[in-house]
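User: I'm curious what two different proteins look like when written out as structure tokens. Can you demonstrate?

Assistant: Sure. I'll show them one after the other, since each token string lines up with its own sequence. Here's the first protein:
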Amino acid sequence: MGFPFFSPMYMPEVRVKIFGPRTSENDSLEKIIGGQWTHNYFPVLYEDLAAQVEYIEIKEDTYNLGGGLVLKTKSLLHPVACLGYRFEYKGKVFCTVYDTEPFTDMEEIIDFIKDADLLVHDAQYTEAEYRSSKSGWGHSYMEYALDIAEKGKVKRLAFFHHDPDRTDKQIDLFSQRYNSSKLQSFFAKEKDEIFL
């Protein structure tokens, strides 16, 4: 997951705060993330980290992060606990909704993403792929992401969490097919920078 290669974790002057949900009663956030530093996965042990690491478990709620930044979280539909994040700052809204199945009650998720300047949404499948064999895998389809973004009056939609079997050519073809006259949509790619 990358943390073992995050060099600040090995610097004694660094303080790192890790926010996330508890996945089960037995698995704390610290156990899940810190468990990467075991000989099963990595040659450096958790005890060898030099940074001061603080684990903050969050759930579906609203959090004032200070400096005018507000975070709202939403429980998503995935086999393992996942949260959607809505960041509000100086009149701008950025939402992430990935690792989720489509909501049966669309209004529940539409209320969460409403009027977002940017929504980054799970779009691993086409609707045909999802309905034929991917339901229950914890991911959404492109048509659904576009539909809720339009209904939520989102300004920009980034399709995210592409199927690992997709080629760049397929993504390019999808970018022509899945667009809207109501909002700007695009397929996220590495090193994209988006200004709100």
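Here's a second, unrelated protein for contrast:
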Amino acid sequence: MTTASLDTLKAQVIAAVDRRREDLIDLAKRIHAHPEVAFEETQASAWISAFARDAGFEVQAPAGGLETAFAATKEGTSPGPRIAFLAEYDALPKLGHACGHNLIAAASAGAALGLVEGLDELPAAILLIGTPAEEGGGGKVILADAGVFDGIDAAMMFHPSARTILWQHGLARRKLSIEFFGLAAHASGSPEDGINALDATLQTFASINALRQHSPTTSRIHGIITDGGEAPNIVPDHSASLFYVRALDDASCDALLERVKRCAEGAATATGATLKLEMLGSYKALRTNMALAETFQANAESLGWSFEDNDPMRRIGSTDMANVSHVVPAIHPYLSIGPSDMPGHSTAFAEAADSPKGHDAMLAAAKILAMTAVDLIHNPDLLSAIKEEFATQAAS
């Protein structure tokens, strides 16, 4: 297909998104105004599913064993690649949509609708997949394990940010629960009869703090105490904490996790408390498909967006999109919705996620994602390059 022909098709999907402008903004605002935390996103899931159903998608809900997940599919007019847009819509406890997932949901919905409503002929299958619980719950991990992404040729989403960057590392992450069981006693009258579970937790934190000095600068260890006892005059017979262990790749993350476990084991030995360790989930390290990302970049630049020169190690976190990227070629680019010094997971970010600039970025993302899909559908050489890169990454 000629460049002029592709440009015509892209203009059609852009026009389709523009026709849905107010609907998409309304969807983003509704989700923002009704924040729902991980695995509880009943309203958001229902709203987006209805949006897709009204556009002619066949909606499976729930999906992958998750009550608030869904998979909406629009089969093409002829066979072709299967392209998925992923919608996140969970909020953060107390902060609400301080990561902008309301914008992610609306952008992915807009991209899917832009394709099915903007193209007369659709030689592809378009999927809109609702993925709950990105914030710590690992919804995409569960969906990937259930086979929801099997048979898909490319998976795409955008993420709102303080900066416009094409990609950055997504750290491998392990979620670890640490519990200690001791023996209660009167903290003043007979402390020698007790075994202090809280002391074991505090010693674990102290050991991990020392471990940080001898860990790679690309790793992260952070935790909270979730149970520290009942009263100051009772030797705590139970104490618990929750840790995230992160590293640049999966092997390094697993190695660091073992060292964290040994910190807890040492604390148990020192205090006499009984230790219980439980893994609560893992995120893999993100694999960005650069052939797909560069296609997204070219389409974004055609709409006037410019990408910063990026240090991929700056402000890095983790995402369950990483697990998807090990199953199917995937991208996770970022568009700015606020000032460059705006921190993520903050009140300022939540406000930006419901601002005119946030809505403009969401609409732009919908267009860019849909335009990228047009390239995938009508450029077999590009799709082959994307798949070849994915196979190379998987073999490394």
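A detail about the second structure: The chain is about 45% helix and 15% strand.
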